[in-house]
Amino acid sequence: MNKKRTIVIMAIVAAFLAVPIFDRNQYHVYILDRALLNCMIASGLVALTGFAGQMSLGHAAFYGIGAYASAILTTRVGLPVWLGIILAAGLCLLVGMLLSIPSFRVSGFYLSLVTISFGNIVWALIVNWQSLTGGPLGFAGIPPVRFGGQPISKVGFFYLAAAILASIFLVSYRLANSFIGRGLRAMSDDEMAAETAGIDTKRLKLLVFSLSAAYAGIAGGLYAHLSTFLSPESFVQGESANFVAMSVVGGLRHILGGVIGGLTVTVIPEFLRVKGWEVYYLMGSSLAILVLVILLPSGLAPTIERGMSRLFGTSQDGQRK
């Protein structure tokens, strides 16, 4: 990779990681924490939709399963927080594996309907199974993540989430650049041709659905212990649409699409919370997303990459022309 380009990328990452050190506003740090969790979910959707061509409009369900599973395991079973999050991610992985089975027979619009129905079923269970989830009243008393016996601060949580997101990115990067990633792209372009070429598309769907669900489960588990209170409103169908918007804005076919989209769609709308104009916040943020999608249909990540390639005179893989 071009040396100047590497330095610039490292400087951008370092500047982002330094933000909580200089900005001690707890609300701002909390928004960054949420942004990192959203990046995890959007990264899963990039792998699922962008690479494998499988559309999911029900990822808020996996987010909710991860959150409530970790909350229940740590408060009612008494497991440590770390074990609760790991088991919650494992549960989401298993459920994602089961949800991938309909994708063997249906695709596109019909698969989207399957995932929407799945999201509605999970949300209905959260609202109505009051003895387990607290129902509309919510689930309180969830323990925070601790380090050395002490609850970690929102700044500490930021670096924890950043480290987990980096691990998720490395897994996705390795996967995308392996024979599995090439198989996923081939399946996305033409499933029948991929099967004719000897690619086991069912196994690939099983893998990518499970992985994407596990990412959402990790984010959900972390969210439960960040907020220490869960409410069903955090897992409605509209949240699934937000996660899809993040992956589209970032770039569905780019490995960094989930990270850039998650940060952009979570953080930028906060700048629109202008005093006296709060009622227009949602309209303004939706309009900003609409403009980004229209002007940059391939997403922000490919656009940024093209800009850096022109700036440093390199090809898009970072090699000097």
Describe the structure.
This protein has 321 residues and is mainly α. The protein is built from 14 helices and four strands. It has helices at residues 3-22, 26-51, 59-75, 81-99, 108-128, 130-133, 154-176, 179-189, 191-196, 201-227, 237-250, 257-267, 281-295, 300-312; strands at residues 139-140, 146-147, 150-151, 229-230. Strands 1-4 form a two-stranded antiparallel ribbon. α2 packs parallel to α7 (154-176) and α11 crosses α12 (257-267). The chain is globular, with a radius of gyration of 20 Å. The N and C termini lie close together (11 Å).
The span between the termini is 11 Å
Unreliable residue stretches: none
Strand order of the largest sheet: 1-4
Number of strands: 4
Specify the biggest β-sheet.
Answer: 2 strands, antiparallel
As a percent range, the share of helical residues equals: over 70%
- Counting copies of identical and different chains, the oligomeric state is single chain
The percent range for strand residues is under 5%
Number of helices: 14
- Output the radius of gyration: 20 Å
Which structural class matches the secondary elements?
A: mainly alpha
The global form is: globular
Listing every helix as H and every strand as E from the N terminus to the C terminus, the arrangement reads HHHHHHEEEHHHHEHHHH
Q: Let me know the average pLDDT.
A: 89
